[in-house]
Sequence to fold (243 residues):
Amino acid sequence: MIPEVIIHTAVSLDGRITNFPADLDLYYSLAAKWEPDAVLFGSETVLAAVRDNPALQVPPEHDAIFTPPEGAPDTRPLLVIADSRGRVRCWDAIRKWPYMRDVIAVCSENTPPEYRTYLAERKIGTIVAGQDRIDIRAALELLNGRYGVTKVRVDSGGTLNSVLLHAGVVTEVSVLIHPYLAGGRPEPTLFDPDRAGFKDFLVPLVHRSTEMMRNGIVWVRYAVTASCDAQDPERGVSVPDRP
Fold:
């Protein structure tokens, strides 16, 4: 069984996902409404977080959102990182993030053996799916089968988002549009099929709802209505080596 997959992102009015002050309190409070069993990151998103904040710390004012009540079952999601090339080396710091109960790495058969040993030594749960690259569909099935994950929220950039959409596994795309013209570099973006290796890939969406939030932020939600080549092993199910 493949879990339900929701892409949730914050953008500026001109389509940037960086270079503007996103309302993180609002972003995470809305994200919690889905009650996901897992949050999926691409390695590039994690590495960008390292560059921007080497301490990898969530601001203290956000901690209360994610801390489970004392004595209650820990309902926080798993944090899953797709990292076929073995680039993420800050797992000890990531484990200190307050919004997840545990961490899982997703690799391929061709992930360097040294990195898989590194994960095992740190007792990082590891899913191996795909030969040369991560088979994202198989990885999601393993998340469900091994860990009981039925709902995944994606917190990533355009490459992994494109891979998931191309594999036909995304149920919903949720976008928080902020009242800023951010400018700057056109990358990273919410959707980047060219970089993911799917030239001219187009995803039809159906509007589900639009809500005006605080401070001029608009929350728009879309259902994904079609998958293209979801069963094509060369195009539809694998995460490229370049995230």
Q: What stands out?
A: Confidence is low (pLDDT under 50) at residues 57-66, 227-237. The longest helix spans residues 136-147.
